[in-house]
Amino acid sequence: MSRRGMTVGELARRSGVSVRTLHHYETVGLLMPAGRTEAGYRLYDDADVVRLHQIRSLRQLVFGLEQVRELLDGKGFSPLQVIELHIAQLRQQIDGQQRLSVRLEGIAATLRAAAQVSVDELLTTMEERTRMESYYTPEQLAELQERGRQLGEDGLRRAEADWQQLIDEVRAEMERGTDPASERVKALASRWQALVEAFTGGNPEIGSSLQRMWQQDETIHGFDTAEMRKLGGYIAQASAGATPEA
Amino acid sequence: MSRRGMTVGELARRSGVSVRTLHHYETVGLLMPAGRTEAGYRLYDDADVVRLHQIRSLRQLVFGLEQVRELLDGKGFSPLQVIELHIAQLRQQIDGQQRLSVRLEGIAATLRAAAQVSVDELLTTMEERTRMESYYTPEQLAELQERGRQLGEDGLRRAEADWQQLIDEVRAEMERGTDPASERVKALASRWQALVEAFTGGNPEIGSSLQRMWQQDETIHGFDTAEMRKLGGYIAQASAGATPEA
DNA sequence: CCTTGGCCCTCACGCGACGTGAGGGTCTAT
DNA sequence: ATAGACCCTCACGTCGCGTGAGGGCCAAGG
Fold this sequence. Notes:
The structure is a homodimer. By secondary structure, chain A is mainly alpha-helical. Chain A has ten helices and four strands; from the N terminus they run H-H-E-E-H-H-H-H-H-H-H-E-E-H. Helix content of chain A is 74%, strand content 3%. In chain A, the strands form two sheets. The first copy, chain A, has a two-stranded antiparallel sheet with strand order 1-2. A two-stranded antiparallel ribbon of chain A has the order 3-4. Residues 242-246 of chain A have low confidence and may be disordered.
Protein backbone atom coordinates (compact mmCIF):
# COMPACT_ATOMS: atom_id res chain seq x y z
CA MET A 1 0.00 0.00 0.00
CA SER A 2 2.71 2.41 0.84
CA ARG A 3 4.50 0.99 -2.19
CA ARG A 4 2.02 2.43 -4.58
CA GLY A 5 1.41 5.52 -2.49
CA MET A 6 -1.12 6.49 0.10
CA THR A 7 -4.07 8.83 0.07
CA VAL A 8 -4.30 12.00 2.10
CA GLY A 9 -6.43 10.37 4.74
CA GLU A 10 -3.96 7.58 5.27
CA LEU A 11 -1.02 9.90 5.47
CA ALA A 12 -2.94 12.17 7.80
CA ARG A 13 -3.77 9.34 10.18
CA ARG A 14 -0.29 7.89 10.11
CA SER A 15 1.49 11.15 10.74
CA GLY A 16 -1.00 12.84 12.97
CA VAL A 17 -1.67 15.91 10.89
CA SER A 18 -5.02 16.94 9.50
CA VAL A 19 -6.07 16.38 5.91
CA ARG A 20 -6.58 20.09 5.62
CA THR A 21 -3.02 20.69 6.65
CA LEU A 22 -1.78 18.43 3.89
CA HIS A 23 -3.95 20.30 1.43
CA HIS A 24 -2.52 23.52 2.73
CA TYR A 25 1.05 22.33 2.46
CA GLU A 26 0.37 21.54 -1.15
CA THR A 27 -1.14 24.91 -1.96
CA VAL A 28 1.85 26.70 -0.49
CA GLY A 29 4.18 24.35 -2.32
CA LEU A 30 5.66 22.80 0.77
CA LEU A 31 4.72 19.19 0.18
CA MET A 32 3.55 18.14 -3.24
CA PRO A 33 2.12 14.63 -3.46
CA ALA A 34 4.14 12.33 -5.66
CA GLY A 35 1.18 11.80 -7.94
CA ARG A 36 -2.55 11.61 -8.43
CA THR A 37 -4.97 8.85 -9.32
CA GLU A 38 -7.11 9.14 -12.42
CA ALA A 39 -9.91 10.39 -10.20
CA GLY A 40 -7.67 13.13 -8.91
CA TYR A 41 -6.90 11.61 -5.51
CA ARG A 42 -3.57 12.72 -4.07
CA LEU A 43 -1.01 9.93 -3.76
CA TYR A 44 1.93 10.30 -1.40
CA ASP A 45 4.98 8.05 -1.53
CA ASP A 46 7.63 7.25 1.06
CA ALA A 47 9.71 10.26 0.19
CA ASP A 48 6.70 12.42 0.91
CA VAL A 49 6.29 10.74 4.28
CA VAL A 50 9.87 11.58 5.11
CA ARG A 51 9.49 15.13 3.95
CA LEU A 52 6.35 15.53 6.00
CA HIS A 53 8.22 14.37 9.06
CA GLN A 54 10.93 16.87 8.34
CA ILE A 55 8.39 19.60 7.91
CA ARG A 56 6.71 18.79 11.20
CA SER A 57 10.05 18.72 12.94
CA LEU A 58 11.24 22.02 11.59
CA ARG A 59 7.84 23.49 12.19
CA GLN A 60 8.32 23.28 15.95
CA LEU A 61 11.59 25.13 15.84
CA VAL A 62 11.02 27.79 13.30
CA PHE A 63 8.77 30.72 12.63
CA GLY A 64 6.61 30.23 9.57
CA LEU A 65 6.14 27.65 6.88
CA GLU A 66 7.95 29.93 4.52
CA GLN A 67 11.18 29.49 6.44
CA VAL A 68 10.62 25.77 6.67
CA ARG A 69 10.40 25.62 2.91
CA GLU A 70 13.46 27.77 2.48
CA LEU A 71 15.37 25.46 4.77
CA LEU A 72 14.25 22.29 3.06
CA ASP A 73 14.88 23.73 -0.36
CA GLY A 74 18.29 24.96 0.68
CA LYS A 75 17.55 28.57 -0.20
CA GLY A 76 17.88 31.51 2.09
CA PHE A 77 19.84 31.44 5.29
CA SER A 78 21.75 28.51 6.65
CA PRO A 79 20.08 26.35 9.27
CA LEU A 80 22.35 27.62 11.98
CA GLN A 81 21.62 31.22 11.12
CA VAL A 82 17.90 30.54 11.14
CA ILE A 83 18.12 28.82 14.49
CA GLU A 84 20.18 31.57 16.00
CA LEU A 85 17.83 34.20 14.70
CA HIS A 86 14.94 32.30 16.12
CA ILE A 87 16.65 32.01 19.48
CA ALA A 88 17.16 35.75 19.55
CA GLN A 89 13.54 36.40 18.72
CA LEU A 90 12.41 33.91 21.32
CA ARG A 91 14.53 35.55 23.96
CA GLN A 92 12.97 38.88 23.22
CA GLN A 93 9.50 37.46 23.39
CA ILE A 94 10.20 35.69 26.65
CA ASP A 95 11.67 38.84 28.05
CA GLY A 96 8.68 40.94 27.16
CA GLN A 97 6.26 38.35 28.43
CA GLN A 98 8.12 38.02 31.68
CA ARG A 99 8.00 41.72 32.25
CA LEU A 100 4.31 41.70 31.45
CA SER A 101 3.84 38.80 33.77
CA VAL A 102 5.53 40.60 36.65
CA ARG A 103 3.45 43.64 35.95
CA LEU A 104 0.27 41.61 35.96
CA GLU A 105 1.28 39.95 39.20
CA GLY A 106 1.74 43.28 40.84
CA ILE A 107 -1.58 44.53 39.61
CA ALA A 108 -3.32 41.34 40.63
CA ALA A 109 -1.81 41.55 44.11
CA THR A 110 -3.04 45.10 44.55
CA LEU A 111 -6.44 44.17 43.23
CA ARG A 112 -6.73 41.21 45.55
CA ALA A 113 -6.22 43.55 48.47
CA ALA A 114 -8.88 45.95 47.23
CA ALA A 115 -12.38 45.73 48.57
CA GLN A 116 -14.37 45.78 45.39
CA VAL A 117 -12.64 45.12 42.10
CA SER A 118 -14.23 47.28 39.48
CA VAL A 119 -12.74 48.15 36.14
CA ASP A 120 -12.06 51.58 37.58
CA GLU A 121 -10.01 49.98 40.30
CA LEU A 122 -8.14 48.04 37.66
CA LEU A 123 -7.42 51.12 35.62
CA THR A 124 -6.23 53.24 38.51
CA THR A 125 -4.15 50.34 39.74
CA MET A 126 -2.58 50.09 36.33
CA GLU A 127 -1.82 53.77 36.24
CA GLU A 128 -0.31 53.60 39.65
CA ARG A 129 1.73 50.63 38.65
CA THR A 130 2.99 52.56 35.65
CA ARG A 131 3.96 55.46 37.87
CA MET A 132 5.68 53.13 40.30
CA GLU A 133 7.59 51.53 37.48
CA SER A 134 8.93 54.95 36.61
CA TYR A 135 10.11 55.62 40.15
CA TYR A 136 11.39 52.26 41.35
CA THR A 137 13.93 50.02 39.76
CA PRO A 138 12.74 46.54 38.83
CA GLU A 139 14.61 45.12 41.81
CA GLN A 140 12.96 47.55 44.17
CA LEU A 141 9.60 46.71 42.69
CA ALA A 142 10.28 43.03 43.20
CA GLU A 143 11.23 43.72 46.80
CA LEU A 144 8.09 45.73 47.41
CA GLN A 145 5.99 43.07 45.79
CA GLU A 146 7.58 40.35 47.84
CA ARG A 147 6.94 42.27 51.03
CA GLY A 148 3.35 42.79 49.96
CA ARG A 149 3.00 39.10 49.27
CA GLN A 150 4.22 38.24 52.74
CA LEU A 151 1.75 40.62 54.27
CA GLY A 152 -1.10 39.05 52.40
CA GLU A 153 -4.33 40.68 51.32
CA ASP A 154 -5.51 41.33 54.84
CA GLY A 155 -2.16 42.68 55.86
CA LEU A 156 -2.22 45.16 52.99
CA ARG A 157 -5.72 46.25 53.83
CA ARG A 158 -4.74 46.64 57.46
CA ALA A 159 -1.69 48.69 56.55
CA GLU A 160 -3.83 50.96 54.46
CA ALA A 161 -6.36 51.34 57.23
CA ASP A 162 -3.53 52.10 59.65
CA TRP A 163 -2.30 54.87 57.40
CA GLN A 164 -5.77 56.31 57.04
CA GLN A 165 -6.28 56.21 60.79
CA LEU A 166 -2.92 57.78 61.52
CA ILE A 167 -3.43 60.51 58.96
CA ASP A 168 -6.77 61.38 60.45
CA GLU A 169 -5.25 61.64 63.89
CA VAL A 170 -2.30 63.70 62.75
CA ARG A 171 -4.55 66.04 60.84
CA ALA A 172 -6.71 66.44 63.92
CA GLU A 173 -3.74 67.34 66.08
CA MET A 174 -2.40 69.72 63.52
CA GLU A 175 -5.72 71.48 63.13
CA ARG A 176 -6.00 71.67 66.87
CA GLY A 177 -2.60 73.36 66.85
CA THR A 178 -0.99 70.84 69.17
CA ASP A 179 2.69 71.46 69.78
CA PRO A 180 4.70 69.03 67.63
CA ALA A 181 7.02 68.55 70.55
CA SER A 182 4.20 67.20 72.70
CA GLU A 183 4.25 63.60 73.76
CA ARG A 184 1.01 62.96 71.93
CA VAL A 185 2.44 64.06 68.60
CA LYS A 186 5.72 62.30 69.26
CA ALA A 187 3.75 59.11 69.64
CA LEU A 188 2.10 59.77 66.30
CA ALA A 189 5.50 60.45 64.80
CA SER A 190 6.87 57.13 65.88
CA ARG A 191 3.84 55.35 64.49
CA TRP A 192 4.41 57.26 61.27
CA GLN A 193 8.01 56.18 61.12
CA ALA A 194 7.03 52.62 61.82
CA LEU A 195 4.62 52.58 58.92
CA VAL A 196 7.15 54.08 56.55
CA GLU A 197 9.66 51.54 57.79
CA ALA A 198 7.17 48.75 57.19
CA PHE A 199 6.78 49.93 53.63
CA THR A 200 10.40 50.50 52.76
CA GLY A 201 11.57 47.49 54.72
CA GLY A 202 14.50 49.58 55.86
CA ASN A 203 15.80 49.88 52.34
CA PRO A 204 17.01 53.48 52.06
CA GLU A 205 16.88 53.43 48.25
CA ILE A 206 13.24 52.53 48.34
CA GLY A 207 12.84 55.30 50.86
CA SER A 208 14.36 57.88 48.56
CA SER A 209 12.30 56.64 45.60
CA LEU A 210 9.24 57.02 47.77
CA GLN A 211 10.36 60.53 48.67
CA ARG A 212 10.61 61.44 45.00
CA MET A 213 7.12 60.13 44.40
CA TRP A 214 5.79 62.19 47.28
CA GLN A 215 7.44 65.28 45.89
CA GLN A 216 6.47 64.88 42.27
CA ASP A 217 3.16 63.09 42.11
CA GLU A 218 -0.14 64.49 43.25
CA THR A 219 -1.60 61.33 44.57
CA ILE A 220 -0.25 58.00 45.71
CA HIS A 221 -2.55 55.09 46.12
CA GLY A 222 -5.47 57.37 46.83
CA PHE A 223 -3.61 59.56 49.29
CA ASP A 224 -3.32 63.24 48.48
CA THR A 225 0.40 63.96 48.49
CA ALA A 226 -0.05 67.69 49.04
CA GLU A 227 -1.62 67.05 52.41
CA MET A 228 0.81 64.23 53.08
CA ARG A 229 3.69 66.64 52.63
CA LYS A 230 2.16 69.04 55.09
CA LEU A 231 1.50 66.31 57.61
CA GLY A 232 4.95 64.93 56.97
CA GLY A 233 6.49 68.30 57.81
CA TYR A 234 4.57 68.41 61.06
CA ILE A 235 5.65 64.90 61.91
CA ALA A 236 9.23 65.76 61.03
CA GLN A 237 9.19 68.54 63.61
CA ALA A 238 8.00 66.09 66.21
CA SER A 239 10.70 63.59 65.23
CA ALA A 240 13.36 66.26 65.24
CA GLY A 241 12.34 67.23 68.74
CA ALA A 242 12.02 63.67 69.90
CA THR A 243 15.20 62.18 68.54
CA PRO A 244 18.56 63.76 67.74
CA GLU A 245 18.53 62.28 64.27
CA ALA A 246 18.76 64.35 61.11
CA MET B 1 -12.01 72.43 19.77
CA SER B 2 -12.14 69.52 22.14
CA ARG B 3 -15.32 71.11 23.44
CA ARG B 4 -17.22 70.43 20.27
CA GLY B 5 -15.45 67.18 19.56
CA MET B 6 -12.44 66.23 17.55
CA THR B 7 -12.05 64.40 14.25
CA VAL B 8 -10.39 61.01 13.88
CA GLY B 9 -7.16 62.51 12.71
CA GLU B 10 -6.90 64.77 15.72
CA LEU B 11 -7.69 62.01 18.16
CA ALA B 12 -5.26 59.74 16.40
CA ARG B 13 -2.42 62.24 16.64
CA ARG B 14 -3.17 63.14 20.22
CA SER B 15 -3.37 59.59 21.48
CA GLY B 16 -0.82 57.96 19.27
CA VAL B 17 -3.01 55.41 17.58
CA SER B 18 -3.68 55.15 13.87
CA VAL B 19 -6.80 56.41 12.20
CA ARG B 20 -7.38 52.91 10.94
CA THR B 21 -7.31 51.62 14.47
CA LEU B 22 -10.02 54.05 15.48
CA HIS B 23 -12.09 52.95 12.51
CA HIS B 24 -11.54 49.39 13.56
CA TYR B 25 -12.53 50.04 17.15
CA GLU B 26 -15.75 51.48 15.86
CA THR B 27 -16.57 48.54 13.61
CA VAL B 28 -16.07 46.12 16.47
CA GLY B 29 -18.14 48.34 18.73
CA LEU B 30 -15.33 49.12 21.10
CA LEU B 31 -15.26 52.89 20.76
CA MET B 32 -18.17 54.63 19.09
CA PRO B 33 -17.62 58.32 18.33
CA ALA B 34 -19.96 60.59 20.21
CA GLY B 35 -21.38 61.92 16.98
CA ARG B 36 -20.94 62.75 13.35
CA THR B 37 -20.90 65.97 11.35
CA GLU B 38 -23.37 66.47 8.55
CA ALA B 39 -20.73 65.36 6.13
CA GLY B 40 -20.34 62.12 8.03
CA TYR B 41 -17.08 62.98 9.82
CA ARG B 42 -16.62 61.16 13.10
CA LEU B 43 -16.60 63.43 16.14
CA TYR B 44 -15.08 62.24 19.40
CA ASP B 45 -15.66 63.97 22.73
CA ASP B 46 -13.72 63.96 25.97
CA ALA B 47 -15.40 60.83 27.23
CA ASP B 48 -14.22 59.07 24.08
CA VAL B 49 -10.69 60.23 24.73
CA VAL B 50 -10.85 58.74 28.20
CA ARG B 51 -12.29 55.52 26.92
CA LEU B 52 -9.62 55.28 24.28
CA HIS B 53 -6.96 55.62 26.93
CA GLN B 54 -8.62 52.89 28.91
CA ILE B 55 -8.75 50.69 25.86
CA ARG B 56 -5.09 51.20 25.12
CA SER B 57 -4.19 50.45 28.71
CA LEU B 58 -6.19 47.29 28.93
CA ARG B 59 -4.99 46.26 25.52
CA GLN B 60 -1.46 45.74 26.83
CA LEU B 61 -2.59 43.50 29.60
CA VAL B 62 -5.25 41.42 28.02
CA PHE B 63 -5.73 38.99 25.20
CA GLY B 64 -8.05 40.31 22.54
CA LEU B 65 -10.18 43.34 21.96
CA GLU B 66 -13.20 41.24 22.76
CA GLN B 67 -12.08 40.85 26.35
CA VAL B 68 -11.26 44.53 26.58
CA ARG B 69 -14.79 45.33 25.56
CA GLU B 70 -16.23 42.85 28.01
CA LEU B 71 -14.20 44.43 30.77
CA LEU B 72 -15.17 47.99 29.92
CA ASP B 73 -18.80 47.05 29.49
CA GLY B 74 -18.80 45.19 32.77
CA LYS B 75 -19.95 41.94 31.21
CA GLY B 76 -18.20 38.63 31.48
CA PHE B 77 -15.58 37.89 34.11
CA SER B 78 -14.38 40.26 36.77
CA PRO B 79 -11.15 42.16 36.13
CA LEU B 80 -9.28 40.13 38.68
CA GLN B 81 -10.41 36.88 37.14
CA VAL B 82 -9.39 38.05 33.71
CA ILE B 83 -6.01 39.14 34.95
CA GLU B 84 -5.41 35.90 36.77
CA LEU B 85 -6.45 33.90 33.77
CA HIS B 86 -4.13 35.92 31.64
CA ILE B 87 -1.29 35.38 34.07
CA ALA B 88 -1.84 31.65 33.91
CA GLN B 89 -1.83 31.67 30.14
CA LEU B 90 1.27 33.82 30.07
CA ARG B 91 3.06 31.46 32.42
CA GLN B 92 2.28 28.56 30.16
CA GLN B 93 3.49 30.40 27.13
CA ILE B 94 6.68 31.47 28.82
CA ASP B 95 7.24 27.95 30.00
CA GLY B 96 6.84 26.47 26.57
CA GLN B 97 9.00 29.10 24.98
CA GLN B 98 11.71 28.62 27.53
CA ARG B 99 11.78 24.90 26.91
CA LEU B 100 11.91 25.57 23.21
CA SER B 101 14.67 28.05 23.75
CA VAL B 102 16.75 25.56 25.69
CA ARG B 103 16.16 22.99 23.02
CA LEU B 104 17.24 25.38 20.32
CA GLU B 105 20.34 26.30 22.28
CA GLY B 106 21.32 22.68 22.49
CA ILE B 107 20.76 22.14 18.82
CA ALA B 108 22.61 25.30 17.92
CA ALA B 109 25.55 24.25 20.09
CA THR B 110 25.76 20.90 18.39
CA LEU B 111 25.46 22.49 14.99
CA ARG B 112 28.19 24.99 15.71
CA ALA B 113 30.51 22.11 16.42
CA ALA B 114 29.61 20.36 13.20
CA ALA B 115 31.78 20.77 10.16
CA GLN B 116 29.20 21.53 7.54
CA VAL B 117 25.73 22.55 8.61
CA SER B 118 23.28 21.12 6.14
CA VAL B 119 19.59 20.70 6.72
CA ASP B 120 20.30 17.00 7.09
CA GLU B 121 22.64 17.80 9.93
CA LEU B 122 19.97 19.92 11.47
CA LEU B 123 17.36 17.20 11.22
CA THR B 124 19.54 14.46 12.61
CA THR B 125 20.66 16.79 15.37
CA MET B 126 17.04 17.43 16.18
CA GLU B 127 16.24 13.75 16.28
CA GLU B 128 19.19 13.12 18.48
CA ARG B 129 18.18 15.93 20.74
CA THR B 130 14.73 14.40 21.00
CA ARG B 131 16.22 11.06 21.91
CA MET B 132 18.48 12.65 24.45
CA GLU B 133 15.55 14.47 25.98
CA SER B 134 13.91 11.11 26.50
CA TYR B 135 16.95 9.66 28.26
CA TYR B 136 18.29 12.53 30.31
CA THR B 137 16.48 14.67 32.82
CA PRO B 138 16.38 18.38 32.08
CA GLU B 139 19.01 18.96 34.75
CA GLN B 140 21.31 16.39 33.22
CA LEU B 141 20.79 17.96 29.82
CA ALA B 142 21.65 21.35 31.21
CA GLU B 143 24.78 19.89 32.78
CA LEU B 144 25.83 18.24 29.53
CA GLN B 145 25.16 21.40 27.63
CA GLU B 146 27.15 23.48 30.06
CA ARG B 147 30.09 21.10 29.78
CA GLY B 148 29.84 21.28 26.01
CA ARG B 149 29.78 25.06 26.15
CA GLN B 150 32.94 25.09 28.22
CA LEU B 151 34.68 22.82 25.75
CA GLY B 152 33.77 25.09 22.88
CA GLU B 153 33.28 24.11 19.29
CA ASP B 154 36.82 23.00 18.76
CA GLY B 155 36.81 21.05 21.98
CA LEU B 156 33.71 19.17 20.89
CA ARG B 157 35.19 18.42 17.51
CA ARG B 158 38.39 17.25 19.16
CA ALA B 159 36.48 15.01 21.54
CA GLU B 160 34.64 13.48 18.66
CA ALA B 161 37.85 12.95 16.74
CA ASP B 162 39.40 11.37 19.85
CA TRP B 163 36.56 8.91 20.06
CA GLN B 164 36.81 8.05 16.42
CA GLN B 165 40.53 7.54 16.72
CA LEU B 166 40.21 5.43 19.86
CA ILE B 167 37.47 3.28 18.37
CA ASP B 168 39.57 2.61 15.31
CA GLU B 169 42.48 1.52 17.46
CA VAL B 170 40.38 -0.66 19.71
CA ARG B 171 38.74 -2.32 16.76
CA ALA B 172 42.13 -2.96 15.23
CA GLU B 173 43.39 -4.65 18.40
CA MET B 174 40.25 -6.69 18.73
CA GLU B 175 40.41 -7.88 15.17
CA ARG B 176 44.04 -8.72 15.64
CA GLY B 177 42.98 -10.80 18.64
CA THR B 178 45.17 -8.97 21.10
CA ASP B 179 44.79 -10.19 24.67
CA PRO B 180 42.63 -7.68 26.57
CA ALA B 181 44.98 -8.05 29.49
CA SER B 182 47.90 -6.76 27.45
CA GLU B 183 49.46 -3.45 28.29
CA ARG B 184 48.53 -2.07 24.91
CA VAL B 185 44.82 -2.71 25.43
CA LYS B 186 44.97 -1.54 29.02
CA ALA B 187 46.26 1.76 27.74
CA LEU B 188 43.35 1.94 25.34
CA ALA B 189 41.00 1.11 28.20
CA SER B 190 42.22 3.96 30.29
CA ARG B 191 41.87 6.35 27.39
CA TRP B 192 38.33 5.01 26.95
CA GLN B 193 37.51 5.60 30.56
CA ALA B 194 38.93 9.08 30.37
CA LEU B 195 36.73 9.95 27.45
CA VAL B 196 33.62 8.58 29.13
CA GLU B 197 34.59 10.51 32.23
CA ALA B 198 35.01 13.66 30.21
CA PHE B 199 31.52 13.22 28.86
CA THR B 200 29.72 12.33 32.07
CA GLY B 201 31.79 14.75 34.10
CA GLY B 202 31.89 12.12 36.80
CA ASN B 203 28.15 12.31 37.27
CA PRO B 204 27.05 8.68 37.75
CA GLU B 205 23.45 9.40 36.85
CA ILE B 206 24.51 10.76 33.51
CA GLY B 207 26.64 7.65 33.22
CA SER B 208 23.67 5.38 33.72
CA SER B 209 21.53 7.37 31.34
CA LEU B 210 24.28 7.03 28.79
CA GLN B 211 24.34 3.29 29.44
CA ARG B 212 20.64 3.05 28.76
CA MET B 213 21.09 4.89 25.51
CA TRP B 214 23.86 2.54 24.48
CA GLN B 215 21.70 -0.43 25.27
CA GLN B 216 18.51 0.73 23.64
CA ASP B 217 19.40 2.94 20.72
CA GLU B 218 21.05 1.82 17.56
CA THR B 219 23.12 4.86 16.98
CA ILE B 220 24.39 7.73 19.06
CA HIS B 221 25.75 10.80 17.42
CA GLY B 222 26.76 8.79 14.40
CA PHE B 223 28.38 5.96 16.32
CA ASP B 224 27.00 2.49 15.81
CA THR B 225 26.05 1.30 19.26
CA ALA B 226 26.11 -2.38 18.32
CA GLU B 227 29.81 -2.15 17.63
CA MET B 228 30.30 0.16 20.61
CA ARG B 229 28.83 -2.51 22.86
CA LYS B 230 31.23 -5.10 21.49
CA LEU B 231 34.20 -2.79 21.85
CA GLY B 232 32.96 -1.79 25.26
CA GLY B 233 32.90 -5.43 26.35
CA TYR B 234 36.47 -5.88 25.16
CA ILE B 235 37.55 -2.76 26.99
CA ALA B 236 35.72 -3.91 30.09
CA GLN B 237 37.80 -7.07 30.12
CA ALA B 238 40.94 -5.01 29.96
CA SER B 239 39.73 -2.75 32.76
CA ALA B 240 38.74 -5.72 34.88
CA GLY B 241 42.21 -7.15 34.48
CA ALA B 242 43.87 -3.81 35.03
CA THR B 243 42.06 -2.51 38.07
CA PRO B 244 40.27 -4.34 40.85
CA GLU B 245 37.19 -2.20 40.45
CA ALA B 246 33.74 -3.60 39.80
C1' DC C 1 -15.08 80.66 -9.37
C1' DC C 2 -11.79 77.14 -9.67
C1' DT C 3 -8.00 74.65 -8.09
C1' DT C 4 -4.97 72.63 -4.82
C1' DG C 5 -3.85 70.14 -0.80
C1' DG C 6 -5.18 68.04 3.18
C1' DC C 7 -8.53 66.14 5.49
C1' DC C 8 -12.42 62.68 5.72
C1' DC C 9 -15.53 58.72 4.11
C1' DT C 10 -16.51 53.61 2.85
C1' DC C 11 -15.26 49.35 0.98
C1' DA C 12 -12.19 45.57 0.63
C1' DC C 13 -8.00 42.76 0.25
C1' DG C 14 -3.92 40.98 2.82
C1' DC C 15 -1.47 38.58 6.51
C1' DG C 16 -0.61 32.99 8.77
C1' DA C 17 -1.84 28.47 9.26
C1' DC C 18 -4.97 26.26 8.95
C1' DG C 19 -10.59 24.96 10.70
C1' DT C 20 -14.83 24.24 8.92
C1' DG C 21 -18.32 23.71 6.08
C1' DA C 22 -20.64 23.42 1.14
C1' DG C 23 -21.48 21.00 -2.82
C1' DG C 24 -20.35 17.22 -5.32
C1' DG C 25 -17.57 13.05 -7.28
C1' DT C 26 -15.31 8.09 -6.20
C1' DC C 27 -14.61 3.73 -4.17
C1' DT C 28 -15.95 -0.48 -1.67
C1' DA C 29 -18.98 -3.63 0.29
C1' DT C 30 -23.47 -5.30 0.52
C1' DA D 1 -28.24 -0.11 -6.71
C1' DT D 2 -27.21 2.01 -2.62
C1' DA D 3 -25.07 3.27 1.69
C1' DG D 4 -21.13 4.98 3.90
C1' DA D 5 -16.62 6.33 3.86
C1' DC D 6 -13.50 8.58 1.43
C1' DC D 7 -11.90 12.09 -1.88
C1' DC D 8 -12.06 16.59 -4.64
C1' DT D 9 -12.23 21.93 -5.07
C1' DC D 10 -13.68 26.32 -3.68
C1' DA D 11 -14.15 29.68 -0.21
C1' DC D 12 -15.12 32.03 4.08
C1' DG D 13 -13.63 32.82 9.08
C1' DT D 14 -10.02 33.69 12.47
C1' DC D 15 -7.29 38.66 14.77
C1' DG D 16 -5.96 43.35 14.64
C1' DC D 17 -5.23 46.12 12.13
C1' DG D 18 -2.01 48.00 7.42
C1' DT D 19 -2.59 49.57 3.08
C1' DG D 20 -4.41 51.03 -0.77
C1' DA D 21 -8.64 52.43 -4.08
C1' DG D 22 -12.00 55.51 -5.32
C1' DG D 23 -14.30 59.37 -4.05
C1' DG D 24 -16.48 63.52 -1.10
C1' DC D 25 -15.53 67.87 2.21
C1' DC D 26 -13.21 72.06 3.42
C1' DA D 27 -10.19 76.12 3.73
C1' DA D 28 -6.98 79.07 1.33
C1' DG D 29 -4.86 81.10 -2.69
C1' DG D 30 -5.00 82.52 -7.73
